[in-house]
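Weekly structure sync, notes
Attendees: PL (lead), two postdocs, one rotation student
Agenda item 3: pending single-chain targets
PL asked that the sequence for the first pending target be pasted directly into the notes so everyone works from the same version. It is reproduced below exactly as submitted, 253 residues in total.
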Amino acid sequence: MLEIITSDALSPIRHGFFTRKGGASSGIFAGLNCGTGSSDLAEVVQINRARVAEAMGVPLSHLANVHQVHSPTVVTLTAPQPEGLPKPQADALVTATPGIALAVLTADCQPALFADPVAGIIGAAHAGWRGTMDGVLEATVDAMEKLGAQRENIRVAIGPTISQRAYEVGPEFVERFVDDDRDNARFFAQGNGDRALFDLPGLALHRLRAHGVGHAEWTRHCTFSDAERFFSYRRTTHAGEADYGRLISTIRL
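Predicted structure, written out during the meeting:
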């Protein structure tokens, strides 16, 4: 059975942060692996994606996603994506068109779902450290505004992502963020030796609020620390496994 995490912040807009439960994949991908870029069997990934589409009440052809590249690029959709064509390189999608389920894939990076329920405009973003730093969240808000959303009415929920206690980084990583903005130091805690612990969702929420959205929250689920429910790139790397599954998060009007 599928397990779907939802956020009251996005109600009544239909959405879901899907865990790995309820899928057809096996082995290291066991469960609901929706990553077409993984080495999982393509036909099994399509079965998983079809289950997600069904849960969202749309045909599989209306489950829209992009070729994620850790960028601040946003795609605006006015119709379902053409079948058989390469997905655009981007990391966020927005639409005002009912019946299109916007989807992003993650495995430690943040899935962020956006909704202006007043204007009837939604968005979805994939926000790892680079995308967050480069402004993908703010760019998603801006793209929604171009469709007629009002930022004070935009509500954002960040789904399962790697938490600060699990996100250990080196001094050069900290330096990159602090060089960009000295205030970013607040998102790092002392780890072992010269290591630091990075609060990715804390940074994302700060940036969203600074950009003026009406509400932003994190579901507080950590992908790294819960292997039964979530795929995690970092956990897979630590275990020396060859590949990893991708979680899907989606929202529709």
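Discussion points:
- The two ends are 24 Å apart (CA to CA).
- The chain has one domain: 4-163+199-252.
Action: rotation student to compare against the earlier draft before next sync.
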